[in-house]
Write a structure and sequence with these properties.
Radius of gyration: 18 Å
Distance between the termini: 36 Å
Order of helices and strands: HEEHHHHEEEEEHHHEEHEE
Number of strands: 11
Helix content: 25-40%
Oligomer: single chain
Length: about 250
């Protein structure tokens, strides 16, 4: 049997594309991480029959029923796109890393039911996941250990939020150039890494540096340490960039 060499995963800067015209894009990047991008815009443009067929192919009966219960059509499409991103991401990650072929319908997504981590997605596979959506895209990240991801459509932020996001690290000139939406994405990605999301104030994550390769550093505040006593940026990898009109940040163990 001939051996097939696996193509090395590219770095994040070279591998990430956010294109709302593509229904699905799977990208394996160094980490090892797998990103699955599902176009909410594409899903929104389908008629009910098309969306029902997509759900039948990829969602369990329970998940399809859950989607149908959501009363707002916009929210229903976003929820479905997020589920598809998680399922496709997990399936692709397992195939690449020797976990065999797992059909998307068999990937079960369960949010943490209660507590400060309520809502954090988990799956029935030996992989950690994160999910985010903004504008026309839902993005899932999959990796071997805990991770956090946040996507924000790049935009002008309100003055009060701009003041909140002002950098406090005078020794890092590059951080002062980081777009405000990207600063917000970095803070939320850190909080999502710990499973808290916005249940913990973003002011508990102080950005301290941003490097030319996209890596960023941060310092936990006392409120974050109360829930995550071992929080330490030095133990984690990170990356943040503006990509195709969006601000995207990742934090992973």
């Amino acid at each position: 049997m001939a051996l097939i060499a696996r193509t090395a995963a590219p770095p994040l800067d070279d591998g990430v594309t956010l294109d709302p015209t593509r229904p699905l894009r799977i990208t394996h990047v160094r980490g090892p991480l797998t990103l699955a991008v599902v176009s909410i815009a594409w899903m929104r443009a389908r008629d009910e029959a098309d969306r029902a067929a997509i759900q039948a192919r990829h969602l369990s009966a329970e998940e399809a029923a859950r989607a149908a219960e959501l009363p707002v059509p916009k929210r229903r499409v976003e929820w479905t796109a997020g589920r598809l991103a998680l399922k496709h991401g997990v399936s692709a990650y397992l195939r690449r890393h020797g976990g065999g072929h797992v059909h998307t319908r068999d990937v079960r997504v369960d949010p943490v039911p209660r507590g400060i981590r309520a809502g954090k997605p988990t799956v029935n596979a030996p992989v950690e996941v994160g999910l985010t959506h903004s504008g026309d895209l839902a993005v899932a990240a999959c990796g071997p250990r805990t991770l956090g991801i946040d996507l924000e459509r790049t935009r002008q932020v309100p003055r009060a939020l701009a003041e909140l996001l002002a950098p406090t690290a005078p020794n890092c000139p590059l951080l002062a150039t980081m777009p405000l939406s990207l600063r917000w994405a970095c803070k939320e990605a850190v909080l999502k890494h710990f499973g808290f999301g916005l249940r913990v104030d973003t002011r508990e994550v102080e950005l301290t540096a941003w490097r030319a390769d996209g890596r960023f550093s941060w310092r936990p505040g006392p409120g974050l340490r109360r829930y995550a006593p071992t929080a330490n940026a030095a133990r984690l990898d990170s990356w943040a960039r503006e990509v195709d009109g969006y601000s995207l940040a990742l934090v992973w163990s």
